[in-house]
């Protein structure tokens, strides 16, 4: 029987407001989550099972610390108040924003009930890396990153990160150690408390699931395990005691098995070498040395590079421009869908100080402050958009640009569109870009 019933009231202690339970959203081993209303606004109310409150002595201290610090970014479903029953001073739950439609559980991606585009997946990866960067930079760690805690919009990759009552001060002793299959090996062996470095291992597992729809350490060895009633899915043996990456370049004994791990086999070659190298780094050296794991900011940069590398094959499939592959072979890899070699995509090389990035000029794609102004990441305020027929770039900013096209110097006022030509050069103020159409 649920702990709370529709229509039942509760008190938001900090707000000193009466709320009403509307219905259950979900349940787990720790608590039940309800839709609740205060005034005319709906929230999520997480209401703990009595045995969990008794077992987790630091629960209310963590929640009060989180409420006091405030939310690192709007991507977290962050606690903002604790709740009690009327005429009671005993805390029983907390309130947080609600992740309603269009957000769905990441479990729907893993089970292939949702089929987002590569652009949505790379945006999802960026928001996760950015969110955990902000969390870690404030001296906190999440402790239990797994796909059950993540909600996303399949259409655009926007994210909400839930279960933030797990968040604690970095390396603080506590009862929450993580989820089987996501837990860093050193945490699973009891050598250290969860921390930002173990979070980065769990984040890499999560990202591997997002892009490959497979666990990075569960390949052929998974099929060879004997049954163990304590370790039913093999996560202890495969991910903590003797972990081996399924694409380890030096040891092929845990490769994906055809017919069993098809998604890993099919997706791994689709992505650029830079992403595959990051995963290889985390799940080889990073299994033994936490310092070798990819940092949050590096994941954030890689997600942006991936997003900018997307272009369309003539068959309509999304492809990635792999700069490393092109430098080595001077050709593009065949399309994963039609198997034909795609034409070289129109692209732009954007330079800022000593850095350069490649942006595929796919109609409809947008450029943001981190592209044109060397500024902070922001996917909600585009400064330019690629248009088609003829191929061009529309100025969505408030500042004029200058460009040299076919030897002629042009001004590009806000709201106007510049038609592009091969070797055209654009000046955006802080950055400069060169256009290549073949």
Summary, kept brief:
The protein has helices spanning 50-55, 59-69, 107-110, 118-137, 185-188, 196-212, 220-224, 235-241, 262-267, 273-282, 285-288, 296-308, 323-329, 369-372, and strands at residues 9-12, 17-27, 31-38, 41-48, 81-84, 93-96, 104-105, 140-141, 150-152, 159-161, 168-169, 310-312, 318-320, 347-352, 355-360, 366-367, 384-387, 392-395, 401-405, 408-412, 417-419, 425-427, 432-436. The chain has 438 residues and is α+β, with helices and mostly antiparallel strands. It folds into three domains: 9-96, Phosphorylase Kinase, domain 1; 104-300, Orthogonal Bundle (Transferase(Phosphotransferase), domain 1); 346-436, Tumour Suppressor Smad4 (Sandwich).
List the helices and strands and how they pair.
Layout: E1 9-12, E2 17-27, E3 31-38, E4 41-48, H1 50-55, H2 59-69, E5 81-84, E6 93-96, E7 104-105, H3 107-110, H4 118-137, E8 140-141, E9 150-152, E10 159-161, E11 168-169, H5 185-188, H6 196-212, H7 220-224, H8 235-241, H9 262-267, H10 273-282, H11 285-288, H12 296-308, E12 310-312, E13 318-320, H13 323-329, E14 347-352, E15 355-360, E16 366-367, H14 369-372, E17 384-387, E18 392-395, E19 401-405, E20 408-412, E21 417-419, E22 425-427, E23 432-436
Antiparallel strand pairs: 1-2, 1-5, 2-3, 3-4, 4-6, 5-6, 7-9, 8-11, 9-10, 12-13, 14-15, 14-23, 16-17, 17-18, 18-21, 19-20, 19-22, 22-23
